[in-house]
Backbone:
């Protein structure tokens, strides 16, 4: 078992890992940039090392400085959190080369799943359903046109090395293809330093369903149910829930079986998420596999009772699953709202500034994951996430009501936040009915304050 873990991340996820370390009796090391000197993850770690200025390239993305921090503090493992270097094969390999256990997959697995075209081939070979599309990466726009015309429009161009909606373009007809190909390739090069694209048949009105898996080093893999992630803005998730109102027990078993097969195909170890598109006929297709802990992991924890961060650490330390993980059932319903420092009245413009007043809700079934507090200055350098508000209740209707109550109790003054937007979603009849897809926000009528 490890004795000391360095967390190569910041904010709420760093604090979340620190909590798991302390509950396991492990020492924790925080790293921080000069912009994060007063963040709570720095305060609550056993040790903290400044690794550079506010620019993430000089701090949280600077591998030599993180490795040096691990050596100085005698850490024996490094947890990457999510974002930054969490899905960097290079970082995983360098940690291993320098004697640190990387609490994440090996570089080979990260590469296999990080390249979307390669991941599709791997999953197809494992019997996981995939969206019809080209094999490998596209050579040029002519190949894209030939495949699209054979398959039929609409189609989706996607960056092979990417995610988060970058390098992605929906193409409705042939005349749009040239421009879409050019802009997607340019965006992919800028975001990932890799302009390779692939093409898929566009699944109309899909739901975004992901399966949480956990794998130990003995080849055992369990599925911990699904998360509904269809409420998105520009392919970025805003809120998530578990279980999904679109998934019954039979479909849950089939999706879980497919996710387990995919994980076993690459000898996966640790926590991972296999993401699917679910169409109106209840057919599902592999999208991608995230080889890290997810932002939305708390809702799975709430409905299963499993501590995913603890089990992520324990599986990488070589521990085998206990029997109860195989028998785990989903209990009740959980919803997570991401509270960002953004102004929904101004097209979600970032709102980084000092928090002058900060009150988080409480009561039965309410959880807060946040690194912020009154007086905390939100830095403009990073993601705008202030925290995550999570509720758990016996069923979906009562969970929505509980979230409404918790949002009302949440007070964050200073920056603009997405709280009013979440409140409007909770009141929306279509959302409350559970009848929605990834295009929900396109028709969602959010009324700005004062209108």
Residues:
């Amino acid at each position: 078992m490890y004795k000391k873990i360095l967390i190569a991340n910041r904010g709420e996820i760093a604090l979340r890992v620190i909590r798991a370390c302390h509950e396991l009796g492990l020492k924790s090391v925080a790293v921080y940039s000069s912009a994060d000197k007063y963040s709570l993850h720095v305060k609550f770690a056993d040790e903290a090392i400044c690794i550079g200025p506010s620019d993430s390239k000089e701090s949280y993305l600077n591998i030599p400085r993180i490795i040096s921090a691990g050596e100085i503090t005698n850490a024996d493992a490094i947890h990457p959190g999510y974002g930054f270097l969490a899905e960097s094969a290079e970082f995983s390999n360098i940690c291993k080369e320098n004697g640190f256990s990387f609490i994440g997959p090996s570089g080979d697995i990260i590469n296999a799943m990080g390249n979307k075209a390669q991941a599709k081939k791997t999953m197809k070979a494992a019997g996981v359903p995939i969206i019809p599309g080209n094999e490998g990466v596209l050579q040029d726009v002519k190949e894209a046109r030939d495949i699209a015309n054979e398959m039929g429009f609409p189609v989706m161009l996607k960056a092979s090395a990417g995610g988060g909606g970058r390098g992605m373009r929906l193409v409705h007809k042939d005349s749009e293809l040239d421009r879409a190909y050019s802009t997607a390739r340019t965006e992919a090069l800028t975001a990932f330093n890799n302009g390779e694209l692939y093409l898929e048949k566009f699944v109309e009105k899909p739901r975004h369903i992901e399966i949480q898996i956990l794998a130990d080093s003995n080849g055992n893999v369990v599925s911990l149910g699904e998360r509904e992630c269809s409420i998105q803005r520009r392919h970025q998730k805003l809120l998530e829930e578990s279980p999904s109102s679109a998934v019954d027990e039979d479909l849950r078993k089939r999706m879980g079986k497919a996710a387990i097969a995919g994980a076993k195909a690459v000898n996966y170890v640790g926590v991972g998420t296999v993401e699917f598109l679910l169409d109106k006929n209840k057919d599902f297709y592999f999208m991608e596999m995230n080889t890290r802990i997810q932002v939305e992991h708390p809702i799975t924890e709430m409905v299963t009772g499993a501590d995913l961060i603890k089990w992520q650490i324990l599986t990488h330390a070589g521990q085998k699953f206990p029997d109860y993980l195989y028998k785990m059932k989903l209990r009740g319903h959980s919803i997570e709202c991401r509270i960002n420092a953004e102004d929904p009245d101004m097209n979600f413009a970032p709102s980084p500034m000092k928090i002058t007043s900060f009150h988080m809700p409480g009561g039965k079934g309410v959880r807060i994951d946040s690194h912020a507090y009154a007086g905390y200055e939100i830095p403009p350098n990073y993601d705008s996430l202030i925290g995550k508000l999570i509720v758990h209740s016996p069923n979906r209707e009562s969970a929505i009501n509980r979230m409404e109550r918790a949002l009302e109790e949440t007070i964050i003054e200073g920056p603009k936040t997405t709280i009013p937007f979440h409140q409007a979603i909770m009141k929306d009849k279509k959302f409350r009915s559970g009848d929605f897809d990834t295009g929900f926000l396109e028709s969602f009528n959010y009324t700005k304050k004062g209108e």
Observations:
- Residues 4-92 form a domain with the Rossmann fold fold (CATH 3.40.50.20).
- The mean pLDDT is 95.
- The first strand starts at residue 4 and ends at 7.
- The chain is about 35% helix and 25% strand.
